[in-house]
Amino acid sequence: MRTKIANWGNYPYEDADEKNFSLLRELREKLLSSDQGIARGNGRCYGDASLAPVVFSTLHFNKILDFDAAEGILDCESGLTLDAILEFIVPKGWFLPVTPGTKFITVGGAVASDVHGKNHHVDGCFSRHVLDMDIMDANELVIRTSPTEHEDLFHATAGGMGLTGIITRVRFKLKKIRTSYIHQKKIKATNLDEIIDLFEKYKDHTYSVAWIDCLKGGKGFGRSILMLGEHAEPGELPAKLANDPLALPKKRSLNFPFYLPSFILNRFTVSAFNFLFYNKMFQKEINNIISYEPFFYPLDAILNWNRGYGRKGFLQYQFVIPMDRKDGLVKILHRIRENGHASFLAVLKVFGEDVSFISFPMKGYTMAMDFPVTDDLFPFLDELDKMVLEYGGRIYLSKDARMKPSMFTAGYPNAAKFNEVARKYNPGRFSSTLSKRLQLHS
Q: What is the pLDDT of residues 350-390, one digit of tens each?
């Protein structure tokens, strides 16, 4: 079925032949009758990683195969979404070991992007919790891989953007919880120095993330709100929640019904939003008990929120720089403020240690910003790329739609090693718009 598809940023679009399957034999048949293509889950990466002239949709390949309730081990097909997993595991006292800011991604997508969350400094990326997985290679053979079996394929697939083969099955370890609620602490920081000090002070908290104002100057430069979280214990719950401590959140969602005109998003409207968002929190610190959904997935409550950036779409720019290069974070933020490109969403996190082929995180500060697509955005992001590289950083492939090959190879020191493994298992069969743009395994 030919259709025009885009990922969550609504940029770029690709005219694609979308092939669905629900059984392995159907996938083999689709592969045999197709040229180059790429696996595609729910399309919630932001850039062009799961776009190609041919895409193999995993959304109907979404069964739970086995669940060990005592050990918290889930075995499932790759098209199962985190949303469906949460509905199954939370009432049984388990949670995802790592989750990104949306629950509407597939397990295969979580591995291919090697997603990180608010707990990376403690628990690492998603792949750290994968026990084993199956991958269909370029010869339609299913290979069982794990950290000790075909380990080169395992580590290249984690963060490999689907370029080593099609992930078909994933078995991973869950996190034990006693309630479905989060003990949240929110702290206002008056500037960038204070938020960095707060991250250090609360580094032992399991979950941490900060909203940051990229446009404020002067003494309030980098003002932020830090959000910390721990899974709540039954004794912490108020009486009205104590009777059902593992209750699923009630289904509540709004829908963004149309695309906003692009002129609405500008420096002045974003500055006004930032002022209101920062100042609606009157206290210096707030402690409360909330459901896991508003803590982990605040934007999932607004369906189609990506339409708010207009029909031209948007780019999410996420970079990481080493922990000892705070001066780079300051310089990049100053450049964003000077240029005036406005981002409603700007988040700052701290990563822990990580070693991989082309998985994104490294020990350091990571910042993500959403920018509406405009004619002058691309040269500006090229300028930011040079600054990120100057300070020893790199860009997240799962969010990218415009980085140049030289930026990728300079930012990812194991790129050549990844290409070698990818060619071994995938001699040109699986490719995407991203892989052609970045000249991966070519």
A: 999 888 899 999 999 999 999 999 989 999 999 999 999 99
Q: How far is CA 338 from CA 85, 222, 302, 389, in A?
A: 43, 13, 31, 20
Domain assignments of the chain as residue spans, ordered by start: 181-407
Instruction: Please choose, from the candidates 174, 186, 177, 185, the residue with its C-alpha nearest in 3D space to the C-alpha of residue 231.
Output: 177
Which is more confidently placed, 251 or 382? 382
Picking from 392, 407, 397, the residue whose alpha carbon sits closest to that of residue 322 is: 392
Say if strands 207-212 and 64-68 run parallel, antiparallel, or are unpaired.
unpaired
Neighbours of 248 (CB within 10 A): 14
Is the four-CA dihedral 395, 396, 402, 407 of positive or negative sign? positive
**Residue-wise DSSP of 272-326:** HHHHHHHHT--SSEEEEEEEHHHHH-GGGGEETGGGGG-TT-EEEEEEEEETT-H
Q: What six digits make up the tokens of 72? A: 């918290």
173, 179, 338, 374 from 247: Cα distances, Å: 21, 8, 47, 44
Q: What are the two backbone dihedrals, phi and then psi, of residue 341, each rounded to the nearest 5 degrees? A: -65, 125
Question: Averaging pLDDT over each range in 35-44, 259-268, 301-310, which range is the top one?
Answer: 35-44
Residue 343's alpha-carbon distances to 17, 258, 328, 387, in angstroms, are 34, 20, 19, 19
Contact predicate 284/189, CB 8 Å? no
Tell me the fold of 181-407. Answer: Alpha-Beta Plaits (3.30.70)
3-state class (DSSP) for residue 425:
helix
Please count the CA atoms within 13 angstroms of the CA of 339 that sit on its side-chain side: 19
Among residues 355, 354, 211, 323, the alpha carbon closest in space to that of 276 is found at 211
